[in-house]
Amino acid sequence: MKAAVLTKPLTNAHVKQIAGQFDMSDLTLPFWGYRKKMPMHRIVRLEGEGNYTVFHFDDGTQLMVSLTLKKMQSRLPSNVFVRPHKKNIINLLYLEGIHPDRQQLSVSLVNGDRVEVSRRKASNFIRQVKGFQQELQAIEA
């Protein structure tokens, strides 16, 4: 299998512009005694840590909330946020490349993170990426 070449990674300004097309409103997150709205388009990936989820944002900051990855997945648009592995959810707007190795498929994100794709989810993940790219091309046309 050859490495899949994706379209050129999007700039932050372009991501913000496209976010409205994909119904990416603000996400309300619980904190100690209050709730805070975070722009969904700034989330690069989410990482599960037991009963907590670590958010990785486009500016390099991280934020931990006391919700499971499964609960967070239900709050995110499934056409933009995909779960390639039980421990991660990635934002396809920040996908840089797909890297097939001998036994393990992985993806790289624009912030430098590399996330493995589980073997069981690989074919569905590739299908989701292709569908997303088609949506993106339709928006830009």
Short description, anyone?
This protein is of the alpha+beta class.
Average pLDDT for all residues: 84
- Count of separate structural domains: 1
Radius of gyration: 15 Å
**Which fold name corresponds to the CATH topology?**
OB fold (Dihydrolipoamide Acetyltransferase, E2P)
Order of helices and strands: HEEEEEHEEEEEH
Q: Percentage of helical residues?
A: 10-25%
- Report the span from N to C terminus: 30 Å
Beta-strand portion reads 35-45%
Give the strand order of the largest sheet, numbering strands 1, 2, ... along the chain. Answer: 5-4-3-7-6
CATH class: Mainly Beta
Which spans have pLDDT < 50 for at least 5 consecutive residues?
Answer: 1-5
CA-based shape: globular
Quaternary state reads single chain
- Structural category is alpha+beta
**Could you give the count of β-strands?**
10
